[in-house]
Write a structure and sequence with these properties.
Elements (H helix, E strand, L loop, with lengths): L3 H12 L6 H5 L6 E2 L8 E4 L3 E2 L6 H13 L5 E2 L2 H10 L3 H5 L6 H8 L3 E14 L4 E13 L5 E12 L7 H5 L9 H18 L15 E6 L5 E2 L4 E8 L4 E6 L3 E10 L2 E7 L6 E4 L2 E5 L5 E5 L5 E3 L3 E2 L3 E2 L3 E3 L6 E3 L3 E3 L4 E5 L3 E4 L3 E4 L2 E5 L6 E5 L5 E7 L5 E4 L1 E4 L1 E8 L2 E5 L2 E3 L3 E6 L2 E5 L2 E3 L4 E6 L2 E5 L2 E3 L4 E6 L2 E5 L2 E3 L6 E4 L2
Parallel strand pairs: 2-4, 2-5, 3-5, 9-17, 18-21, 19-22, 20-23, 21-24, 22-25, 23-26, 24-27, 25-28, 26-29, 27-30, 28-31, 29-32, 30-33, 31-34, 32-35, 33-36, 34-37, 35-38, 36-39, 37-40, 38-41, 39-42, 40-43
Antiparallel strand pairs: 1-7, 5-6, 6-7, 8-10, 10-13, 11-12, 11-15, 12-13, 14-17, 15-16
Helix pairs in contact: 3-8
Amino acid sequence: MKNVIFAVILGLFILTGNTSCMLRMLQPPPAPAVLEEDQLPTKIAILPFDNQTANPEAGDLVRKMFYNFFSSLNYLDLEPYVIDDNLKINHLYAEIIAGEDISPQKLGQLLGVDAVIYGEVLSLGKTYALLYSDNQAGLKARMVRCNSGQVLWQLKHTIHLEEGDLPISPIGLATTVVKTAISHHQASHMKAAAELCMQMVATIPNPPAVSEAPPKIQALVHNGAGKLVQPGEYLKVAMIGEENQIASWSVPPLIESLPMKEKRPGVYIGAYRIKDRDRLPHGRMVGYLRAESGVGSQWIDTLGPVKIGKPTVLPAVITTDYVLDIEKSPYLVKDALVVKPDAKLTINAGTVIWFNSLGMIVKGELQILGTRDDPVRLSSLSMTSWKGIILDRSQSDNKISFCTISNAEFGFRASHSNISIHNSRFQDNDWGIAMEECKAEILNSLVRTSTKSGIAARKTQLLIKGSIITENSSGGILLENSQVRIAQNNILNNGGWEIKVLDG
C-alpha cells in the first residue's frame, strides 16, 4: 500500500479542480503601496510580528507562514530563529514583539541586512456575528530599507474564510491531511494564515534573480503533529513543490538534511525511524528544495513542535508527596492519575505531561509552578479528547501558574476546593474552566476556543481579573448563584454571550 500521506495529498490536488470558491476568486487582489521597484534590497530579515490578537500563537504562526511564501522570492533572507537569537542576545526581542519602534538602521547593522519587514497581526481566528461566524486573518506589514528608513512596500490586508470553505492555496488544502492530528481551530487558523500570506507576498516587488529563481515550495506536512513519535515508529514527511528538484528535511539537532524521494512530479516523501536514544520534546521541522545549481528555498513547519522520544510513565496512584520536573519530562499518564488526600503533587517549570484518554484527579494538593519562559504543558497524547484536570474536595492552597491545558473535556474542573490560577492558558477544550462550590481566583490568564463555555461557576466565590476570555463557542462566562468580582478583563467575541448570570 502506498504511503497514506502521499495518496491523500494527491487526492487533494485532484480535488482543487472542483472546489474553487467563485466568490473569493472574483474578489480583487489586495492593492499594496509599492513605493520603490528599482534598486531593491538584496538581504532581508522578517522581524518577529507584533501580535494584536488574543491568540497567543498568532504572531509566530503568521510570521512563519509569511516567511515560507517569501522565501521563494529572489531575496536573501535570514531564518527566523537566527533573527530571534540575535535579537534576544541584544535584548531587543521583547521590544519588537511589543510593537516598539526600533530604528531600521540599528536593526540593519545588528542583523547584517539591507532591509527589514515589520508585521502586525491584526486578527486570526473565528469572528462571531448575529447569524454566522467566519475565520478571519488580518496583517499589516511593511518593508523598510535599513540605511535610509525608506518604506519600499506596505500593505494592510484581511481575508475571511466561511466555515467549511476549502482554501484555494495548496498549503490550505494540505492542512486537511493532518486535520485528525490537530484541532479544528488550529486547522482553520492555518488555512486563513496561508491564504492571507500567499496573497500578500504575491504583491511584493521581486528583484530579478542573479542566476536562476529558487524552486518554490507549496506545502510541507508530516504525521508528527499533535502526538508523540516513539522509538520504533516512523516520522513521515511530505513536501509539495516544483518537480525535478533535490529535496531534504531536518529536525535539528536530531535529524539533519535527510534526503526525500520524488514519488510523483513535485511530491517528495521522506521518513525516519525513531531510535531508542532519540529524545526531542519540542523539535522544529524544516523542508528544503534546491536545484542542481544549488539555489534553493525552505519551508518552516507551521503544524507545531515535533515531539520525539520515550516518555516517563507515571503511576496510577500517588499516595505521598511527588515532584515532576523537566529532567524526566515528558511524562505519560496511561489511564487516570489519582492524587490521594494526604499527598501533594508538585509540577515544576518546563514539565510536559501527556494523557492517553482519561485525566488527573487531585484529592490532595496540586502545585503547578511554571514560569513565563518555561510553562508547564498538559495535553492529550493523541487528538482524542482526554478528561482534564479535576480538583475534588481539596481545601489546600492549590495553585496553577504559567500552565497551558488543551484538548480536554474540562481544561480544569473543581468541586468544593480552593484554587488560584495565574498566567495560564486554557484553549481548545470542551469546557475551559468549570467550578462548583469553590473559592477561586483567575488572574492574567487566557481562556479561548472552548466548544462550550469559557468559564462556568456555580455557588462559587470567584475573582476574575486581568484575563482574556474569547472565541468560546457557547459563551464567555456562565455564572449561577455565585459571588463574583470581574475586573480589568477583555471578554469579547464569544458565541452566545459574553457574561450570562443565572440565579435562583
